[in-house]
Give the backbone structure.
Amino acid sequence: MAAPAGMGRLEFLQVSSVGGLSEEKPSGAVAAVVPLGESRFTLGTGAGWDDFLRIGTAQLSGSYTAAGDPIGFMEGLFGPSISVGVSTRYQYADSTGESFFDVDAGFQFSLFPSSALGMTYTDIIEDRLFAMGFSHVFNRNLKAHASLCEGDWQVGCELQITRVLRLFSGADGEAVNAGLSFSPGEWDYGYGAVLHEGSVEHRLGVSRRFP
């Protein structure tokens, strides 16, 4: 739901949970995303808590496929695909007692069989930021991602080792992350480590698809 326009690529109901530990402070979140059949709409909702920042978040997102078929297209069909998405977010800061409401909006455009370009406005109400990103699939085993926000680059890649094992890594100039995921059947189990200056943040995640 960080990039709501991309939710149109999901084919089934998907439920995810993630937990992390940074400087002995836990964080966690749960989320669910469901495509609404032939309507071209996809809805998602989630909630989380970060004990390090003392911030709780509740989120509601939606996407609409305006043209083309982003799911079939990425499987190799030719033709443009355009999807748009909006995400509303409520945050509560326990340290100050303040609450915040904000909105993200963006779109995703695919023209080539394995490439997609996305643009997103985040924090539209409080502090608007514009970000753009690009993803490319190499022979279905290697995926590369790059994004630019306010002059700062983020890059990442995913490598499919076997049918069930995937490795990933990335960096944003301030932190480096690496991890793996194991996907037997409809389940996906993941671990990732984020290397900050002077500390390491560990994250575990579980997702389940419901075809």
Summary: The chain has one domain: 4-210. DSSP finds one helix and 14 strands in the chain. The radius of gyration is 17 Å.
